[in-house]
Write a structure and sequence with these properties.
Helix content: 10-25%
Distance between the termini: 56 Å
Strand content: 25-35%
Shape: globular
Structural class: alpha/beta
CATH superfamily of the largest domain: FAD/NAD(P)-binding domain
Radius of gyration: 21 Å
CATH class of the largest domain: Alpha Beta
Number of helices: 7
Number of strands: 26
CATH architecture of the largest domain: 3-Layer(bba) Sandwich
Length: 413
């Protein structure tokens, strides 16, 4: 019997375990999922909490209950992985052997790495919506905010869901207009990038949308200090951006247990991974999925979903001694909430930028265009997440490979 150990009970770990359970009977494989707690948070929903559109308790479910029968769930911290012995050492002193290890430990916020971020003003005039506690605290602060300068700051990349800070800006503009205080509030987006987004075509479109909403864009700003008491962001080159209320997306690292594991992680604690097979470059029996993998693609839930299909196929091939499938193309797509009950959808991969057209084929959701239909798609995705994506079910018409049907080329500059 094969023993497959999965580190992490988030999106990647859960959907991988459930897909593997469908592929192997309990007599063929023992599947063990390990995580340090039993709270699975639907992280895309945190974006809506500061605007009173949902609440943290509505986004959280027990991790173990998302797993199919026959999958073992262990609530335990992970100390480190000994790849030379094929062994996971748990914080309680016990150990788990594995024939295949799937690292799905995600990424973790590291606010302590930015000077002053968690100092005076933290959770008073400086918040993040990337945690349930931060999003809930920000809801109260926004409710009382009626004049001054609201600044949204990405400290550095990579981060989970790279479009979420932009979505926050668009939703904040809408929220403040609905309250009738937008004219009294300056709204500024501060990013280390040289544009609004990483992909040039989408960056031009998103940058134009910021300008249309009178949202200032500050680029190439590498935050070295957050002065909560003085209300200042200070870059390493000593530029300053003042604020009255700051929404900061902290630096992200890989899980500490990966950093503690000799040779397993890179300098940030992410697992070096083949970008097409999802097998680690560290050890052949180790695979990585989702945010835990060091891949040149967005750290987003859709990426994890598309990776899952190829990952599970390759675990089966590896255990059967067959060549791996190198077909994962970096497929990612994102709904971008733009306020006023509209959203935009982008779809891309390693080689192809977001293009206009429709998804997933000639008839479908509009790409690179704001629409109410996309907004409904964003809202519907929460149901799909719990009832289709996490259980490891295939979504009809949507596969790991990026579709080309329905996309218009070339893109006008």
């Amino acid at each position: 019997m094969h023993q497959i150990v999965i580190l992490g009970g988030g999106t990647g770990g859960t959907l991988t375990a459930n897909r593997l359970r469908r592929a192997y009977s309990p007599d063929e494989a023992r599947i063990i999922v390990v995580d340090q707690d039993d709270a699975h948070v639907y992280q895309p929903g945190l974006l809506f909490v500061p605007f009173g559109l949902t609440h943290p308790e509505d986004l959280t479910r027990p991790r173990g209950r998302q797993l199919r029968p026959g999958i073992e769930y262990r609530t335990a911290g992970v100390d480190q992985v000994a790849t030379d012995r094929r062994e996971v050492l748990l914080a309680d002193g016990s150990a788990l052997d594995y024939d295949v290890l799937v690292v799905a430990t995600g990424s973790v916020l590291a606010p302590e790495e930015t000077e002053g971020l968690t100092g005076p003003g933290w959770m008073e005039r400086v918040f993040t919506f990337y945690t349930p506690e931060g999003a809930a605290g920000l809801e109260g602060a926004l409710r009382e905010f009626d004049h001054g300068r609201l600044v949204v700051n990405v400290v550095e990349l990579p981060i989970k869901c790279p479009v979420a800070p932009l979505e926050f800006c668009f939703l904040a503009d809408w929220y403040l207009r609905e309250r009738g205080v937008r004219d009294d509030i300056e709204l500024t987006y501060v990013t280390p990038l040289d544009a609004a987004f990483t992909k040039p075509v989408a960056a031009r479109r998103l940058g134009g949308m910021l300008a249309d909403r009178d949202i200032e864009l500050v680029t190439e700003f590498n935050t070295g200090e957050v002065d909560g008491a003085g209300g200042r962001l200070v870059s390493y080159d000593e530029r300053e951006v003042p604020f009255d209320l700051a929404v900061v997306i902290p630096a992200h690292n890989g899980a500490p247990c990966i950093a503690r594991s000799p040779g397993l992680g890179d300098e940030l604690g992410f697992v070096p991974t083949d970008e097409h097979t999802l097998q680690s470059t560290v050890a052949p029996e180790v695979f990585a999925v989702g945010d835990a993998a060091s891949l040149p693609i967005s750290k987003a839930g859709s990426v994890t979903h598309f990776e899952g299909e190829v990952l599970v196929e390759n675990i089966q091939r590896f255990l059967a001694g067959r060549p791996l499938d190198a077909s994962y193309d970096g497929h990612a797509n994102c709904f971008i909430e733009t306020g006023f009950h509209k959203a935009m959808l982008i779809d891309f991969n390693y080689e192809v930028e977001p293009l206009p057209g429709h998804f997933p084929a000639g008839v479908g959701l509009p790409l690179m265009k704001e629409s109410h239909l996309n907004h409904l798609g964003k809202l519907m995705f929460q149901w799909i997440y719990w009832h289709s994506l996490l259980p490891g079910r295939d979504i009809p018409g949507i596969h790991s490979a990026m579709p080309t049907a329905g996309k218009k080329q070339p893109v006008d500059a």
